[in-house]
């Protein structure tokens, strides 16, 4: 199944399922969550729906209808990703009869199917895709599921609801870590639960033979007055030796000076900000399978290793769009030396057959070949730049005409690593975007920071 972005899109999935119910303490319910899930997210619904929460959130959750729905919104709501790649939701029921009656009303307007009984539990299908099952205490939703798979999904939910105390997620180290995060929205996820392009930065510092399931991201989410969602997190491992290597690798990243924070266009999908000594950073890249593949491809034409080793200071990598077949990047980085330009004549002579490097002015070049084109060079103030067009490559050298808001830029400065995600660009579907904006109080930006 297609993987999702665990951060904003898992929040969206939780809101989606709950809003489908509302559209139109005892922790036994946690026993239904599989102990081998790859990602786990906790929503403090009570905090999110407090008087201080955005009106859009209250409207989406239909707070006035919460009591009559039978869902206990005073208890945390958990979202998880299964090893099969499905998204699940577990919530506590305050009144199962009221919940069943509510589903009966929703079935009349086509929101869900009529409630049926399977084994000892009640079931329905919401919006033709999400299979929901519930007992006297617990609601589990799993999907999205095609009609041909829904009988199988119903069986899986029945097994989840029937798990004995101690068989679920509560006994795991993942849940213990999640429970230690004090935030309205908290998440713990294996890097394996993320798409490869998103997982790569989190794998930096892990041993070369590390499996993505061994690297874990823990983060807490909260809104801010800067119009963005701040995700303060850490990358770690339950494997002690691997965890030591991950922690040691943090020293490679230095506080970001902030000189490039305005260079990322606000409409770009993703931006990664850092401050590194290239001599140390290159070793992390070579230990990372994704970056190693990228370097191997680039090194066929130019000596990208030597370029990266020349970096000393702030660096910015921007992905204008996600989901395209060709990975397009724009890059800007401070240099301590441009001696690698002395090798350009050699690069020209050793280009693979059918490709070439051509001059584009002083210290500026273009590589063309194999359906790939990228422009690169060094500016007068010792900044390396690269992009898929000459205009875009040089544009990243200076402040964008449409920069990130000042409040967002301020959150980046001083951090060791910052990843900025444009929620509107990532969640392209209009309805999906509205769900995310409602949950986040209209914020358009998510920032993952490493202190």
Structure characterization notes:
31% of the residues lie in helices and 26% in strands. A hairpin with a 3-residue loop joins strand 5 and strand 6. Helix 1 packs across helix 17 and helix 3 packs across helix 17. The protein has 17 helices and 19 strands. It has a 19-stranded mixed beta sheet, sandwiched between helices. It is α+β, with helices and mostly antiparallel strands. The radius of gyration is 24 Å and the shape is elongated.
Bulk shape:
elongated
Beta-strand residue percentage: 25-35%
* Structural class category: alpha+beta
Say how many strands there are: 19
Report mean pLDDT, rounded to a whole number.
82
Number of helices: 17
> Into which percent range does the helicity of residues fall?
25-40%
Give the N-to-C terminal Cα separation: 34 Å
Mind sketching the topology for me?
Layout: H1 6-22, E1 39-43, H2 45-48, H3 55-61, H4 66-69, E2 77-81, E3 87-92, H5 96-108, E4 116-118, E5 121-126, E6 130-134, E7 138-143, H6 150-161, H7 173-179, E8 185-190, H8 196-203, E9 216-223, E10 228-236, H9 240-249, E11 270-277, H10 278-286, H11 289-299, H12 304-309, E12 311-319, E13 330-335, H13 344-349, E14 356-359, E15 364-369, E16 372-378, E17 383-387, H14 390-395, H15 406-412, E18 417-422, H16 423-426, H17 430-439, E19 445-450
Parallel strand pairs: 10-19
Antiparallel strand pairs: 1-2, 1-8, 2-3, 3-7, 4-5, 5-6, 6-7, 8-9, 9-10, 11-12, 11-18, 12-13, 13-17, 14-15, 15-16, 16-17, 18-19
Helix pairs in contact: 1-17, 3-17
């Amino acid at each position: 199944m297609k993987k999702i972005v665990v951060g904003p899109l898992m929040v969206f999935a939780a809101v989606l399922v709950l809003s489908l119910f509302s559209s139109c303490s005892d922790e036994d319910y946690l026993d239904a969550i599989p102990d081998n899930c790859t990602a786990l997210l906790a929503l403090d619904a009570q905090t999110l729906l407090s008087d201080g929460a955005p009106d859009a959130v209250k409207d989406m959750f239909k707070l006035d209808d919460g009591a009559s729905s039978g869902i206990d919104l005073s208890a945390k709501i958990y979202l998880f990703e299964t090893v099969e790649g499905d998204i699940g939701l577990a919530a506590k029921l305050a009144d199962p009869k009221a919940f069943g009656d509510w589903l009966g009303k929703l079935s009349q307007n086509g929101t869900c199917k009529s409630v049926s009984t399977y084994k000892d539990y009640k079931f329905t299908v919401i919006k033709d895709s999400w299979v929901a099952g519930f007992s006297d205490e617990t609601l589990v939703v799993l999907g999205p599921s095609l009609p041909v798979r829904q009988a199988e999904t119903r069986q899986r939910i029945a097994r989840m609801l029937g798990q004995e105390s101690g068989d679920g997620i509560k006994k795991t180290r993942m849940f213990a870590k999640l429970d230690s995060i004090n935030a309205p929205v908290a998440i713990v996820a294996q890097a394996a639960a993320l798409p490869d392009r998103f997982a790569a930065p989190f794998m930096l510092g892990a041993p070369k033979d590390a499996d993505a399931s061994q690297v874990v991201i823990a983060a807490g989410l909260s809104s801010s007055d800067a119009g963005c969602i701040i995700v303060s997190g850490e990358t770690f491992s339950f494997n002690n030796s691997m965890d030591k290597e991950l922690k040691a690798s943090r020293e490679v990243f230095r506080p970001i000076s902030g000189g490039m924070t305005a260079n990322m266009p606000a409409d770009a999908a993703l931006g990664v900000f850092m401050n590194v000594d290239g001599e140390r950073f290159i070793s992390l890249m070579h230990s990372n399978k994704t970056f190693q593949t990228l370097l191997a491809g680039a090194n066929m034409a130019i000596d990208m290793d030597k370029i990266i080793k020349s970096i000393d200071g702030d660096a910015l990598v921007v992905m204008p769009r996600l989901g395209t077949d060709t990975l397009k990047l724009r890059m800007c980085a401070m240099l301590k030396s441009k001696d690698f330009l002395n090798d350009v004549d050699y690069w020209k002579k050793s280009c693979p057959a059918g490709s070439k490097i051509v001059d584009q002015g002083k210290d500026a070049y273009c590589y063309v070949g194999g359906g790939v084109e990228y422009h690169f060079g060094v500016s007068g103030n010792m900044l390396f730049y690269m992009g898929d067009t000459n205009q875009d490559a040089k544009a990243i050298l200076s402040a964008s005409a449409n920069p990130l808001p000042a409040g967002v830029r301020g959150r980046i400065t001083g951090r060791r690593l910052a990843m900025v995600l444009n929620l509107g660009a990532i969640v392209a579907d209009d309805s999906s975007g509205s769900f995310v904006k409602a949950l986040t109080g209209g914020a358009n930006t998510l920032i993952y920071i490493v202190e």
